[in-house]
Amino acid sequence: MEFQEFTGKTIDDAIIEAATSLGVASTDLETEVVFKGSMGFLGIGAKPAVIKARPKKADSLDDILGDTSAARSEKPAKTAPKAETAAPKAEKPAKKEVEKPAKKEAKEDAEPVVIDESIIDDTKEYLKKLFNAMELEADITVELDKDTRTLNIDVEGPEMGIIIGKRGQTLDSLQYLINLYVNKKSNTHIRVKLDTENYRERRKETLETLAKNIAFKVKKSRRSFTLEPMNPYERRIIHSTLQGEKYVATKSEGEEPYRRVVVYYKRNGR
């Protein structure tokens, strides 16, 4: 993406404007200061700060993995709807996506599930072959939590940014592939969680910061803001972060994989 210009009273204001306009956190921006701005004399002749900004670039593994994101849905991905030229028909209001509170992963009195621990070694071997094909050096740690039926996988290495990909898309695709492999070999459904360099937690913090920045902009302008398409997990983070806001609310619109979160202003706090 090419650099775009953004303005604000200060450089910080311009960066917030860029982050909200581009739909990313300020920490995920490449910025260049064009003009620092000037206060003028007693406010007369003041000039806004000007910056150039664009989202940071990230490597991907499309050439190695192929279009794995398309395999994540049994149905073929829908194309974005074309703009209508005729007067639109009356439609029912979009249903607000209600995010249910996360369920406890395991009950205290639940008995551990019998899972063949050979799945740990099998998964390690599968990952070694996968990373060798990608020509990546990686140390793999696999732990099985029988109580929650979760296979926790952590990968470390010198080039982990490559397997994370743009906003974690490659990491999600890898997790999906591993999930297919594991559950094809197991008689019991196992949840797979793949992470590297604590990316999942860092991404959560980035989305929380983004949500707060956008909420501030919406409260100030009283105009709604639509984020880029996100997966259900990331949409829940946005909804949860802004759940207690008095003057801002959220809803989800659209169909997968183009479903987006809309942050809008609540009139009179309603």
Structure in a nutshell:
By secondary structure, the protein is of the alpha+beta class. It has seven helices and nine strands. A three-stranded antiparallel β-sheet has the order 1-3-2.
Key descriptive features of the protein:
three-stranded mixed β-sheet, 270 residues, three-stranded antiparallel β-sheet, single chain, alpha+beta
Write the layout of secondary structure elements.
Layout: E1 4-8, H1 11-22, E2 29-35, E3 49-55, H2 62-65, H3 118-133, E4 139-145, E5 150-156, H4 160-164, H5 169-185, E6 191-196, H6 199-221, E7 225-226, H7 232-241, E8 248-253, E9 260-265
Helix pairs in contact: 1-6, 3-5, 6-7
Q: Which structural class best describes the helix and strand composition?
A: alpha+beta
Assembly context of the chains: single chain
Q: Give the strand order of the largest sheet, numbering strands 1, 2, ... along the chain.
A: 1-3-2
User: For the CA atoms, what is the radius of gyration?
Assistant: 22 Å
The separation of the N and C termini measures 38 Å
Output mean pLDDT. 78
The biggest sheet amounts to: 3 strands, antiparallel
- Element string (H = helix, E = strand): EHEEHHEEHHEHEHEE
Poorly predicted sequence stretches spanning 5 or more consecutive residues: 59-95, 98-110
- Approximate strand percentage: 15-25%
Amount of helix: 25-40%
Question: What is the number of helical segments per DSSP (H or I, 4+ residues)?
Answer: 7
Total strands = 9
Shape, principal axes of CA atoms: elongated
